[in-house]
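Collaborator request, handled under Task 6.
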Amino acid sequence: MTNTEFLHSLSAELDSLPAWSLEEAAPASTLILSIDMNKGFTRTGAMASPRVAAILPATRSFLKSCRDGGYFIAAVTDFHTADSIELGSYPPHCLEDSSEPELAPEIGEFPQKILTKNSTNAFFAPGMDRLLNGKETVVVTGCCTDICILQFALSLKAYANQADRPLEVIVPRQLVETYDAPGHPAGLMQSMALHAMLENGIRVVQYLPTK
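Structure tokens returned to the collaborator:
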């Protein structure tokens, strides 16, 4: 398959994702997770992205439906010090003495639990193990699709597979996004990350809002 043929195939794959609605997940055994929808990725700072900010209305609507339906909602947000090793790979962002780690105001009212992380992978955030305890479904939303979302979803699925633990990891396509920058074409990075998740047993879906 040529690169052009692959890109056409990838586009068709993502255009034909199955529909999914929140009602398919049982509230008692489902965790709704929002990753890095904070001021530092939506409002201000080196990593702020208008593409990420653009999914805030849909994210707010989704989280409101989750709250109304009795689902447990948690958020994870970057929280770095000036000495954080991750800042050797990315520009300084979400520093502890700034407002950037704070959740975007559009969604701040919804999480019942907020965890902080000092790496790109929320799977290792202190307290994540307790959030996952007893869950059969985890719905992952937020940013960045090709970094934090991808790493968390793959780690979680691999962890469950290692333990032969049935666990559905669901990523609604409309509720994840990444940034655009030189050397980081957002559309391509988004599509490739979604494809990688699909190939590893993660359910990437088209979210149908609750009527």
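The cover message to the collaborator said: "The longest strand covers residues 72-78. The mean pLDDT is 96. Please let us know whether this matches your experimental observations."
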